[in-house]
Structures are given as C-alpha cells and as structure tokens.
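Hey Z.,

So I finally got round to the pyridoxal-5'-phosphate thing we talked about over coffee. Here's the setup:
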Amino acid sequence: MDTLALLGGKPVIEAPFKPYRSIGEEERLAVDAVMRTGHLSGYVGAWCDAFDGGPVVRDFETRFAAKFKSRHAIAVNSNTSGLIAAMGAAGVSPGDEVIVPPTTMSASAMAPLIYGGIPVFVDIEPDTFCLDVTKVREAITPRTRAILVVNIFGQPAALVELRELADEHGIVLVEDNAQGPLATQAGRYAGTIGHIGVFSLNYHKHIHTGEGGVCCTDDERLARRLRMIRNHAENVTDELADGDLVNLVGFNFRLTELQAAVGIAQLAKVDRVVDGREAIANRFSLELGGFPGVVPPQVRDDCRHVYYVWASRYDERVTGVPRDLFAKALAAEGVPVSVGYVAPLYLLPIFQKRIAIGREGFPFTLTNRSYRKGLCPVAERMHEKEILELHVCSWAFEPTEMQSVIDAFEKVYAHRYALTALAQ
Ligand SMILES: Cc1ncc(COP(=O)(O)O)c(C=O)c1O
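And the result:
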C-alpha cells in the first residue's frame, strides 16, 4: 500500500503541469497591427465621433455582440468597472438595496457601494452555489433597485426565473458573468438574460486581454448610460440632456485598441477554449463522481456549465475525514486543489465594521441591515465544510497527466483513514 505523500510517501504527481496558454501568434500579429497605427486608444472624453472609442474597440464590440447574440456589447477595462457602470446605468441611488450572493469575488458586492447602494446578501443553493430564487423573492422590498446575480464557477444561476422576478417588480437584473462565457440557460447565453450582463477578460478567465471586460445589454437606454459612464459622462450630459442623463458621473473605464485587438483574436478561440474545459471537467465528473461523499458539479436542467472551476461538494460524514485534511493530502500528491472558495462576503471587515466610504461609514448609515455571522447558513456551510475545488480545467493536459490527477485522488480516497491520526 502506497504511503500518502502527506505522511512521507512519494507523490503521484511529481512534475508540474503545463498551464494552458491561449495567447499565440494571432494575438501578437493583431497587437502589432495596432502598434503600427500609433493609435493605442481611440477615445475622446467629449461629445464627438470618438466618444465611443476607436475602430478596433468598435470592431471588437460588434463581434462580441454577434457572438453572444446581444444587441449591444460595451467594452470596458475590467469586469469590476463594468459592474460599477451597470449599477450607475440601473440608477442605483444612496439607500437603494441591491440583492447579491455572498459566494462570489468581492467586486460583485463592492459595485453597489460606489453609488451608495446597500448590498443585501441572499443565500445560495447548495447544489449550484448560485443565488436561491425563492430566497431572492422573499428579500425584495420597496427599496430593492437591482439584483446582481453571479454565474459562479461557470454555472448559470436560475437566470430566466430571476429575470421574470425582476420584471415583475420593475427592478434591474445584472448578471456578473465574469466566469461564464458561453454558459447557457434554455438556449440563451448567460450574460444576456439579465438586463445587463458583465463579462471579465482578466488574465485568469476563459479568454482574456490581460485586463478587460464587456457589458452586454439589449436595452438602448441602458446601453447609452453604460457608454456615458465608461467615458466621463459629466462632459456630455449637456449635449444629451433629456432628463435621463442628469446626475451621471463618469469614469475612465476604457479598453485600449491594443487590448481590443487581443480580444478579437481571443473571441475567435472562445468555442475551442470552452469546449476543452468542458471536456476536462466532464471526465473528472465521470471519474470522481463514483467516490461516495464527493459530489461533482451539478449542472442545472437545460443549462450549459463552462467550468471556470470544477467545484464539488464534499461530505465528511460520508468520507469520515474532514475536507481540509483531505485537500491537504491531495495537494501533497500534486493535485491543484483548494477549499471553500471565499468566505461569504458579508464577513469582510468592510461589512463587519460598516466602513465603506468616508469617515461616517456611508452608506451603512442609511440602513439597519445586519451582516451578522449566520446570515446565509448555506453559503457559510459550503465555505467552511463542503466546497472542494479542483483547478483542473485550465491545464494543457496530456491524457496521462489527467489520469495522474485521478490516480492521486483515488490514492488519497483509498488511504484517507491513515489521515485520521492527523485530524486529532
Ligand atoms: C465572479 C467575479 N466577479 C468579478 C470579478 C472581477 O473581474 P475583473 O478582474 O475583470 O475586474 C471576478 C474576477 O475574478 C470574478 O470571478
């Protein structure tokens, strides 16, 4: 019987895997072509033809909109800026409530705060780790202005249902689709089912431009507001004053021509990249789904999951070994693994100390919403005990390498009771 690497044995995986690299010759040539023009960014922050950027940015936007079947695609310099612009476009005002899940990257919950909005954390479903629609329905109040849903790990939330709910209440559904390009529900792309969907093009995502993002919307009015906020809205509201654009403060959220050129080349590869990740994930789900106490990602009916992360649920009552110890043993064997994703966001000091903006604690001064521990018990349990993530979808695996991850998992599972002494 092999000794576990954590207990001094030989690890199953001894050489590091090659990271998947999507940037190649196409991107280099595209960047070179922009370099030759000398116009590395095409924006002017005043009302003129260049207000909406240069030719490469516009070309990228046209292609992105066509690919994702969205009327408008508005390129921005990150998903974070896209989410802030979305909150501004939705008209979030001081004291307005914005429903968000606690299990997401911090930027999702920071965006409302910029406009004085109050994040209202609503619990997640244990099977998909996405917002629980029933609980969202119960959390809507007359102060709710928007729902900011996250397609976490590449799994679409119950987007169609949430859109119906938002429309019923006259509020805006914003999708944080940073992790879900080409994910679908009912044949429609995640990121295009909400009123606004925001994609990320940062280095870690399926396709990337180093840093970058895109906001999609079918709504003319929201598209116009997003474009304003992206490029110093305050300079152009006079030209366009029609009652809708007053009080719009803008930012510089502009993607450069160089990044847009990379984006065009990356967009041409998105199907291949996503198909590849899905195939890897499916193999792991098939092979590891047979271990009692490890439940592979559950894909919602009528949905496509695009596996930013292969996130399983671990049940220590079945395996007999605590999750964190099991993960430590996997890591010692060379498996790329982590646990719990992030702590529910309301546990961050910004919420615990109610200290977002300024000395007085704005905007928490406008609400008595509590951010106490225990607020979202499912999210807390998933973080503390159950989520077990294998970071396997972004490697350029040789078939034998993939098998070695499965072998390592099998080894740790088979010898897990040898770990119990360490647990005491
Ligand atoms: C769910 C989610 N939201 C927002 C972001 C922020 O994206 P960006 O780095 O493009 O601002 C990320 C990035 O990791 C993310 O995963």
